[in-house]
Amino acid sequence: MDDLYREMIVERFKTPLFRGHLEPHDIFYEDDNPVCGDHIEITLQLDETGHVRAAAFDGQGCAISQVAADLLMESIQGKPLDEVRALTKEDLLELLGIELGPTRLKCALLSFKVLKAGVYGLDKTEA
Amino acid sequence: MPNFTALREDFPTLAREVRPGVPLTYLDSTATAQKPRAVLEAMDAFYRRHNANIHRGIHTLAEEATAAYEGAREKIAAFINAPEAAQVIFTRNTTESINLVAYTWARANLKAGDLIVLTEMEHHSNLVPWQMLAAERGVELAFIPVTAEGLLDMAAYARLLEREPKLVAFTHMSNVLGTINPAGEMIAAARAAGAITLLDAAQSVPHLPVDVQALEVDFLAFSAHKMLGPTGIGALYGRRDLLEAMPPFLGGGDMIKRVDLDGFRANDLPHKFEAGTPAIAEAVGFGAAVDYLRAVGMEAILAHEQELTAYALERLAAVPGVRIIGPRAEKRGGVIAFVLEGVHPHDVAQILDGEGVAVRAGHHCAQPLHLCFNLPATTRASFYLYNTRDDVERLVKALAKVKEIFG
To answer: Which residues in chain A (11-30) have CB-CB distances under 8 A to chain B?
Structure first.
């Protein structure tokens, strides 16, 4: 328990570093977790060489979902899209560094799902 | 007044620890109730001694199983004061009971443009079947709004009745707000407007006296597992003439009187609506649950839960940052949904679980209601006959732990 809500998670929940909505952006995607109503949207700006220039998330949800999104945005800064596409859920869980049961795993992976859908160009890209 | 603290001994789960040294504080009975030993033993005895398929069997065990199954139906009929046991149909749960009405009565009687009145506080089980019907048949749905206090807007209801709805279907008690709706008054008004009524009694039959004849309700749906019984079985009560006129629901064995290759003749009530081998042991457990509740007394259970809820509302209101959703104590049953400022309900529930306190977090299958209150989710504590003030104190103490972690 104390492990799940260790200081880094709670601090990062209260003061996220990558919360926001980028305008303009090159990639936009959003999705919900129907079980709990958590919502995450992600906006990415790319440079000419296809690297992530800036990444931001917005939404609402529990500490696990929001912190996972924040850490994920941090981890892809400057990365080429190919590398972002190759991210695995294990990479994200390693960033969080906590053990999660099956229900909370869905919270943690919501932003991962949204990011993947976004970088694979599923059709929610805004102008 | 029964001794509600002493009867905790009847519930084996309540004695367990969630993890070493952390006792269970079970505040999630609105989702499902814990089971007393009497229910577990009745089901066990059925499987150990009487197990056989019901109806038409000639051997002793088949007759015993049939008697046990039909005996359970009689107990349940008496519990809600149904005129006869044949008006109680066993289903899987409240959801299936409502779907049965939607697929049979509604599809036989409603056409495009007909109006169904629901409320904004419905559980998805009394919303989605009607949305499916609306999409298929062009039936119109209208909703009685929920006020800021968490009550139904009765003036708006009166205006909706002027539009002569064919069906008024609503929850007797909200699984989120705890609101106990004035069912008798609402049913009388619906009948005066010429509408058929369906009451979602999933939360009311377990917690307060419900009398279908006094209510003059046409259909009533509820589940065993929320009233100390097993999962996998529920009931639909229906007015006899309506049930007689309705087409069957699922086809198969037991629901027929006669079959040849050209067709079939449906069986009499209640078997017409019970195709296939039903949940026999579960029916026996359902009957034992009803026996248990009757022995304690539904008036006493309601009084105990309302007293406990009033106490909990007062204690929770004193926790800084807690916002409680729903009406004042007199208007509600033992359900309290709340939000804690700055902390998501999932995080609240997770930290409470660490303290052994079992609550629910989310939209509780009532997403439109949460939208009314502009909340994505709430944390919900709910009470039953086995909860005590100690449980409330443990909840309040565990909330302090949440505040400590989230600062």
So the answer is: 13-14
